[in-house]
Design a protein that fits this description.
Radius of gyration: 15 Å
Largest sheet: none
Number of helices: 6
CATH architecture: Alpha Horseshoe
Order of helices and strands: HHHHHH
Length: 118
C-alpha cells in the first residue's frame, strides 16, 4: 500500500535524479536514479523501477547493483530473458562474481540455468 509519504519520497528522489542527470554524477556512492529505482522496488512497483534502472544504466552501464537490481525488477514482472541479460552482463563485469557479490550472482546464475532448461 502506497502512502502519501512514499509518494513524496518518490517525487523528491525523481527530482534529485533528474537534476543529477543534468549536472552529472561525478563521484557518488549511489546515483539518485538508482536510489529511486530501489525505492520503487521496495514499494512493489517493479515496472516503474525498470524504467528508472534503464535510465540509471545508460549513465553508469557497469554498476553492479544497477545491473543486478534491474534483473530482479525484470524477474518481478516475469521477463526472464531480460533478467538473464542483466545478470550475464553483471557476471562478465565481475569475472563471474568474486567477493561480496558472489552469492547474489550465484542466485542469478541459477535463474539463467533454469531459463535455459525450460
Amino acid at each position: 500500500m502506497q502512502t502519501a509519504d512514499s509518494e513524496d519520497a518518490i517525487a523528491l528522489l525523481r527530482k534529485a535524479a533528474d537534476r543529477q542527470n543534468l549536472a552529472g554524477q561525478n563521484e557518488v556512492d549511489i546515483p539518485a536514479r538508482e536510489m529511486l529505482s530501489d525505492l520503487l522496488m521496495l514499494e512493489k512497483r517493479p515496472q516503474e523501477a525498470i524504467v528508472e534502472y534503464r535510465i540509471a544504466l545508460t549513465l553508469s552501464p557497469k554498476r553492479l547493483n544497477g545491473l543486478l537490481s534491474a534483473g530482479e525488477a525484470e524477474e518481478g514482472v516475469g521477463n526472464k530473458p531480460e533478467a538473464e541479460r542483466y545478470y550475464a552482463v553483471a557476471a562478465i563485469n565481475t569475472h563471474a562474481g568474486g567477493g561480496q557479490s558472489a552469492a547474489r550472482l550465484a542466485a542469478c546464475g541459477q535463474l539463467c540455468a533454469e531459463g535455459r532448461a525450460s
